Recover the amino acids of this structure.
């Protein structure tokens, strides 16, 4: 299940927080730059980077994507909520 939630009161001065709930686990999202997102568990134990490469493919630094060479839950979640464009289902580029 994927949900976006606001954490606490609205922030001022251009600061915003977004969270995705993946399999019941809340992940914090941070946009690093135009085609680069970080996805982090609130306890800080895991941070993965999702980014687009010059050829147009997306990759994630999580073990699932790196070892299986397929779209992981992090890529799928960002696509599902419209933060990434949908890409082909087969393997996306490795970093």
């Amino acid at each position: 299940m994927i949900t976006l939630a606001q954490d606490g009161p609205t922030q001022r001065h251009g600061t915003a927080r977004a969270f995705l709930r993946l399999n019941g686990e809340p992940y914090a999202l941070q946009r690093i730059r135009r085609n680069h997102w970080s996805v982090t568990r609130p306890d800080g134990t895991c941070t993965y980077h999702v980014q687009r490469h010059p050829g147009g493919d997306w990759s994630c630094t999580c073990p699932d994507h790196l070892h299986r060479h397929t779209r992981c839950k992090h890529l799928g979640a960002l696509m599902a909520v419209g933060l990434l464009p949908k890409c082909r289902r087969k393997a996306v580029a490795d970093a």
